């Protein structure tokens, strides 16, 4: 397919946008003549702002119907050779109607939900047991962009945005980040167990920095963790921009996190992640470069709940329950930390 002008539609969330960046970088490296326009969510744009060779159009879902009016105005009748419809949520599917593209490429039938198939006239190849990042790579495959074995995530961070992290490094010498909060409380580990891990890391010679967003869920969890720590930690939850947080993650020795955006942000800057998983299959949504260090109870939980192994279930099947994260023991996470530190030397 001859594509000169390409439009991407992936609005959210932070982790998924990070996965998509690897695919975009692949296109920029191997097909630099393609002009890329990315329609993206307002918060997610704050992380990717300044990314070279990409023009962004912001879609602010908080505007409701006006978001579609604004998108139509921003597009101003522009035509594209192809649209990558990289999100199955109905909000994104509905926005695709406004994009004038000869070819609208969506997910394969197995991954089409919320009427996604109605808004695409071509589909990427089906994949078995693919990580989300690999699923996105299927879009680049669909327009014959050469494959690569070397992933890259070119998310720019200015010197000013890295200053906080460099100050931390100068003050603390070396530090580990715990980013404890996922978007839903049920996916968060217990604060006393985070506290135990923080104390373990400090006793191993690291300092510990807490990172997270400005939501009350994040802040409250951070305060609870502090109350359970025997040693002092640095709490930056709600005190950084996304770019500043990316800098803090970049200079960390490692990151401990559940299924949350900062885990994937850390991957984009080459920092190893200890992922904590119970509800979703880490083979699909885990920190892509650190899947060997995941502390997961997903396999056992999904077998208990369904009577089937994860291989026998539809890809992406989630386990259900409010208390599943309690099944992740401190010793499981300590074992993964020790494993990673032995590799790091």
Strands side by side in the biggest sheet: 3-2-1-4-5-6
Mean of all residue-level pLDDT scores: 97
Number of domains: 2
Order of helices and strands: EHEHEHEHEEHHEHEHEHEHEHEHH
The CATH architecture of the largest domain is 3-Layer(aba) Sandwich
Main beta-sheet strand count, sense and barrel state: 6 strands, parallel
- CATH C-level name of the largest domain: Alpha Beta
Relevant CATH superfamily of the largest domain: Glycogen Phosphorylase B
- Alpha-carbon distance between the two ends: 47 Å
Taking all Cα atoms into account, the compactness measure Rg is 20 Å
Strand content: 15-25%
What are the salient characteristics of this protein?
six-stranded parallel β-sheet, 12 strands, alpha/beta, Rossmann fold, 2 domains, 345 residues, 13 helices
Task: Describe the protein's architecture and organization.
The protein is of the alpha/beta class. The protein has 2 domains: 5-142, 3-Layer(aba) Sandwich (Rossmann fold), CATH 3.40.50.2000; 160-344, 3-Layer(aba) Sandwich (Rossmann fold). Helices cover 40% and strands 16% of the residues. It contains 13 helices and 12 strands. The protein has helices at residues 14-30, 42-48, 65-75, 90-96, 132-142, 159-172, 191-203, 216-228, 242-250, 261-268, 282-285, 298-306, 330-344; strands at residues 5-9, 35-41, 54-59, 79-85, 100-106, 122-123, 175-178, 207-210, 234-235, 255-258, 273-277, 295-296. The strands form 2 sheets. Strands 3-2-1-4-5-6 form a 6-stranded parallel beta sheet. A 6-stranded parallel beta sheet has the order 9-8-7-10-11-12. The longest helix is centred in the N-terminal third of the chain and has 17 residues, at 14-30. It is globular, with a radius of gyration of 20 Å. It starts with a strand and ends with a helix. The relative contact order is 0.12.
